[in-house]
Design brief:
4 helices, 68% helix, 91 residues, 0% strand
Amino acid sequence: MSAHTAAEMNAITFREGLLAPEPMPRFVALHALEEEIEHSQGSDAALASAAARFVERGIPYYNVQDPHYQAWVSKAVSYWEKLHGGAARAS
């Protein structure tokens, strides 16, 4: 995955970034989630707050085969989709 910005990223490229074997795409994806949180602050404060707490914990130990890592990725993608959809509706 190249260095996508939040505006260029969709849920598929976001997930790909979090699952990438190299660390930089994972950091880029998590940063894109932070940008989504910043852009959605006014639309759903509770969701933005929960997502911010999730991001603050950072990326767990990377093991693409680990069910806990897979669950973390799924939760991140869920936040991404909710925030990204909310930002689109608020515009």
